[in-house]
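User: Could you go from structure to sequence for me? I need the amino acid at each position, not a summary. Structure tokens:
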């Protein structure tokens, strides 16, 4: 399973990259705004900075809601760097745009996916990735991991090539469950990746080894 970092913060990306386990980055308009990145020029420059930090797929989201606007933005983003994956919302216009971009050979990430039906549309349009939002489903008392599992199973059954990118990951248990159900990618905040390192028995075991070595 690939590990993407879900952030637009360059320091966090640099930190996660130093662990040697980072395969890519996902961003969204909220994460860009959190970093104070506003305006087209600044946004494009920031995506380029991320691409220069990480040699992997970098999801950059369009802001337009109409088909033509999405395509115009997608072309601009894709021209920035070969690692850009254009993130497009799972709307009717979005699915149409993904279909066109797929025919043009541009990688896409179909985002804001909350149902198996939406995942079917993303795969049929040829999306490179589909992003089911695990945490946001859990937030409304649905089961985000079950959706990831269903998408993985159906894509396998029907031979779709779209990769399942589990998004809106909130804690290490989400990551482990995504691994168990066969997600291709989990995109996580830095804190979640760091939580995976920690185990109290590792800490106490290491403390005893060090203490014994000094006897
Ligand atoms: C990823 O592509 C999404 O932008 C992100 O995981 C959303 O996470 P959130 O639900 O924690 O905002």
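Assistant: Here is the amino acid at each position, in order:
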């Amino acid at each position: 399973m690939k590990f993407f970092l879900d952030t637009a913060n360059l320091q966090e990306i640099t930190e996660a990259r130093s662990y040697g386990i980072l395969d890519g980055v996902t961003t969204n308009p909220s994460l860009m705004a959190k970093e104070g990145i506003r305006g087209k020029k600044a946004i494009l420059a920031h995506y380029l900075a991320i691409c220069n930090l990480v040699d992997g797929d970098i999801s950059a989201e369009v802001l337009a809601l109409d088909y033509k606007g999405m395509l115009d933005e997608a072309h601009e983003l894709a021209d920035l760097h070969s690692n850009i994956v254009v993130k497009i919302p799972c709307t009717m216009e979005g699915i149409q745009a993904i279909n066109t971009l797929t025919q043009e050979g541009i990688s896409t990430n179909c985002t804001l996916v909350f149902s198996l039906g939406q995942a079917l549309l993303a795969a049929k349009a040829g999306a490179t990735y589909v992003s089911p939002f695990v945490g946001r489903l859990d937030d409304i008392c649905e089961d985000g991991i079950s959706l990831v599992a269903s998408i993985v199973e159906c894509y396998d059954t029907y031979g779709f090539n779209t990769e399942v990118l589990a998004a809106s990951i909130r804690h290490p248990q989400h990551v482990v469950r995504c691994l168990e159900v066969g997600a291709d990618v989990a995109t996580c905040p830095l804190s979640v990746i760091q939580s995976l390192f920690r185990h109290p028995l590792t800490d106490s075991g290491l403390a005893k080894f060090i203490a014994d070595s000094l006897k």
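One structural detail worth keeping in mind: The radius of gyration is 18 Å.
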